[in-house]
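ARCHIVE CARD
Drawer: 12
Card no.: 0347
Subject: one protein chain, sequence and derived structure
Cross-reference: see card 0346
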Amino acid sequence: MDMDRYPTKLRVLAVDDDRSGLRLLKQQLDLCNYNNVTTVTDAATAWDMLRERKGRDDQFDMVISDIFMVDGGIDGFKLLEHVSLEMDIPVISHQ
């Protein structure tokens, strides 16, 4: 695998209420040398982290999120809505 193809310095926020799926996603990102991955298990925590870091040097560059989450007060769809309206970062969603 040609690791030069991947932008490994990206700060990635991975969100999934399925801890096993989140662990697997982190492992896959690690294999591609994405070494700056933060994982959280609920959308509300993810949204708080995104807002807290917005405009800072350590803001996230990308979000990968499950869409079918309900723990923590907001679901994955609402998280994606907030990010698309208030942030200028790419989002990858999965179910």
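Annotation on reverse: The chain has three helices and four strands. The domain at 3-93 is CATH 3.40.50.2300 (Rossmann fold).
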